[in-house]
């Protein structure tokens, strides 16, 4: 019998996640002994030379790779409407089964749906490594960005419906050949999370019932909030100052994130401030947040000059991209094209 052996990287986080996946696969396989619900079958697992190895059924290409190959090869179109209907039914049956067990997949995407048979158009849903029970403390960072549901982006409570959103995005992509929500601007998602209070800082985690250190990991002050990390923390204040951003006369508001965001929007529309400066605030916030995460998660830190340099590079790239878009739009208008805004 041919099998697939998945070798887990020798890393504690990967190891822990894989153990969770093994437990969930055993659980769903136990409740689906006849293999009716299109979920990956686990055969065995073992530890060898400091690596965890998972033995499961051997499948074919995932939908992302196969769809790309099918389009680029120029052959007969595989994803016809009848086949898309068949794939949809199988995915819905799989999700209905998982949801009936109280599970949320949390990472449904084309890469996690594999072909079992090309001729019969059979698929299997894989990768339960990010899955969880609805009764668990739900993580605020789930789903791949292009398939992420609005409630997850906004940091709101979510449930099994997020899997249905992901499936809709997948089907639209297979049908049209284009990713429905492009993954080319992570900063947009980040800004949505900032204004909605959705970035995972200590006060948000405590509100969700998690036990975490409530101090700011950069400056040690008690009470790590979104506003503190992005505006009040010593490191954040240094970055705003070194960038020469026109901050409020009495400094940023230490209590109100929305007051500070409102101020940044006013500056961005002030013609007296240089374009490179007034348009820079999203990248300043983004770099502050990235630096904070690198420090907390990986123990890495960037020097302030390097941080400022990265921000300026990002701003210049954005301004250049905007200029190219304007030139392209002007050419299209001259050629008689109608732009849909």
UniProtKB/TrEMBL annotation:
Presence of keyword Acetylation: no
PROSITE patterns reported for this sequence: PROTEIN_KINASE_DOM (PS50011), PROTEIN_KINASE_ST (PS00108)
Coiled coil: none
Molecular function per GO: kinase activity
InterPro entries: Kinase-like_dom_sf, Prot_kinase_dom, RVT-Znf, Ser/Thr_kinase_AS, Ser_Thr_dual-spec_kinase
Pfam families for the chain: Pkinase (PF00069), zf-RVT (PF13966)
Lyase as UniProt keyword: no
SUPFAM superfamilies: Protein kinase-like (PK-like)
Keywords from the UniProt entry: ATP-binding, Kinase, Nucleotide-binding, Serine/threonine-protein kinase, Transferase
Residues of the Protein kinase domain: 1-231
PANTHER family assigned to the protein according to its UniProt record, in alphabetical order: DUAL SPECIFICITY PROTEIN KINASE, PROTEIN KINASE SUPERFAMILY PROTEIN
Name of this chain's protein: Probable serine/threonine-protein kinase dyrk2
Organism: Camelina sativa (False flax)
